[in-house]
Amino acid sequence: MLYWLSELSDGGDVFNLFRYITFRAGGAFFTALIFGFIFGKPLINLLRRRQGKGQPIREDGPQSHILEKAGTPTMGGALILGAVIVSTLLWARPDNPFVWIVMFVTVSFGILGFLDDYQKVKNQSSKGTSGRARFAVGLVIAAIASYWAAQYHPEALAHKLALPVFKDTLINLGWFFFPFATIVIVGSANAVNLTDGLDGLAIMPVMIAAGALGVISYAVGRIDFTEYLGVQYVPGTGELLIFTAGLIGGGLGFLWYNAPPAAVFMGDTGSLALGGALGAIAVATKHEIVLAIVGGLFVVEALSVIIQVLYYKATGKRVFLMAPIHHHFEQLGWKEPQIVIRFWIISLILALIGLATLKIR
Questions:
Q1: DSSP string covering 51-83, please?
Q2: Structure-derived torsion over alpha carbons of residues 30, 217, 190, 143, reported in degrees to the nearest 10
Q3: Cα(336)–Cα(209) distance, rounded to whole angstroms?
Q4: Beta carbons of 298 and 350 less than 8 angstroms apart
Q5: Where are the domains of the chain?
Q6: DSSP letters along 101-148, please?
Q7: Does the pTM exceed 0.85?
Q8: Fewer CB near the last or first residue (10 Å), C or N of the chain?
């Protein structure tokens, strides 16, 4: 909303700064970061009082988790969501539809995750709401967002899939674009959810992916950049840089408390919301395939579960010692900080590869 201060500008004063997306993105980052530091500790104390025994730990997971992580409160993702919502509302243009689409997905999946976390804590069980019901609601949320985004895509891009590396190559999906985009958003939400299994493991890759998608959003929202890079121009997506900046700021504030040993878990409240947000940004910017590269770590985590389940049902044997794959490395004897930091490094490499697709044409 601070954008409207630019209307007070005559072009040569401080109010003119509010015209610039990069300036407002910086403001969103620091707003979210400060929000996280101010409200982090009070929120954790509140969650501890309300939840008592904290998040139930999976009995079929690594045995060390039962001893080391018992009693840790969950729903810490609410801190990130609060930071992102406040910073975005404060610094983004309120008349930008893409901002509202991504916010809709983020808040909706956040509520869905909160209900799941609530059921787990209430029943002191690692099983929350019905998986099918949660998946079905997620599909509805993602379908609405996909249709909504398509209304604001340029006519030349509507219902089409852009391919990275191949210049000006578009695949016309027709009405199949909507189920495809829906799967991208829901798949992203659940992939991040599966990744959130170790202290700090999910939040840093989310921030890295958000940073890459923020750069992409800014680039495809500027016609001069798209002409130079040879990518599709999607007017208005540049404002999503402000959302991603807020996400990174809020994520850092959360990581302060989520770093090993975690004082709080983000829970499904955070993981579903943040994953859905990444998927929605990819759909808005027409970079759905690039998301699979930038968020490659999440893809591998999700595939490890799918492969494990399908192979076990077919043969009665396991491919991995435990799924998701980060637990496999735990069973191999890797220490938790080793896994987390190495996965961070992989995420950064994948994000750089994803960004390189902007230039490689």
A1: HTT-SPPPTTS-HHHHHHSTT----THHHHHHH
A2: 120
A3: 22
A4: no
A5: 2-356
A6: HHHHHHHHHHHHHHHHHHHHHHHTSS--S-HHHHHHHHHHHHHHHHHH
A7: yes
A8: N
Q: What is the largest CA-CA distance in the chain?
A: 72
Identify the three-state secondary structure at position 11: coil
Q: What is the pLDDT of residues 4-17, one digit of tens each?
A: 676 666 666 677 88
Say how many CA atoms lie within 13 Å of 235 toward its Cβ: 6
* Structure confidence by residue, pLDDT tens digits, 53-67: 766 665 555 655 544
Q: Is residue 136 scored above 90 in pLDDT?
A: yes
The C-alpha atoms of residue 45 and residue 190 are separated, in whole angstroms, by 28
> What was the pLDDT predicted at 249?
98
The rounded Cα 196 to chain-centroid distance in angstroms is 11
Secondary structure string (H, E, C) spanning 234-296: CCCHHHHHHHHHHHHHHHHHHHHHHCCCCCCCCHHHHHHHHHHHHHHHHHHHCCHHHHHHHCH
Q: What is the pLDDT of residues 75-102, one digit of tens each?
A: 999 999 999 999 999 999 999 999 999 9
Omega of the bond leading into 324 within 30 degrees of 0 (cis)? yes
Cβ pair 239, 92 in contact under 8 A: yes
For the chain, the first-to-last Cα distance in angstroms comes to: 37
Say whether 170 sits in a helix, a strand or coil: strand
Q: Quick check: helix, strand or coil at residue 357? A: coil
Residue count of the chain: 361
How far, rounded to the nearest angstrom, does the alpha carbon of residue 10 sit from its chain's CA centroid? Answer: 38
